[in-house]
């Protein structure tokens, strides 16, 4: 499915990073090891590399990763791109300083819980998760994301999932976004930034 979605010319979600990531660049420390989860065409991992981080980016679409490699090359940065199914990813314990997970809401609740546990496991103590996604109200907007409300995030859900971390920011809001054809228009968004204890 994802290879088909990414097969069209151009970049489905654009080449600029998610506004959430750009707006929280103060959390990005040059030299830190970062993992970009289900990174698609590379807009977010390339931004991380441009900010001096050592970046690994994984995605399950070969087509997306080819575009991501082209984007990184064009911007003059190095990213370690890996072809991988998120459910088979090796969440190496305490391997990363930052995990970035942006619009990864293709996972149903049971799989999502495993991904969240993996993210926490792979963070070093003191490491940060930067998570950005949609709330259930997004289905009504229809401006991006899957049509399954159960895949979306709520403040309670994220608080329960990451309550064992130091939550630095947890905010739900509506905002107009223009991130390629894939994410365009008024959107029901939610952000989480949390630090592993």
TrEMBL record:
Keywords recorded for this protein, A-Z: Methyltransferase, Transferase
Gene3D superfamilies associated with the record: Vaccinia Virus protein VP39
Coiled coil: none
Protein name (database record): SAM-dependent methyltransferase
Keyword Disulfide bond: no
Listed Pfam families: Methyltransf_25
Gene Ontology molecular function: any one: methyltransferase activity
Domain of life from the UniProt record: Bacteria
Methyltransferase domain segment(s): 35-127
One of the protein's GO biological processes: methylation
Record keyword Phosphoprotein present: no
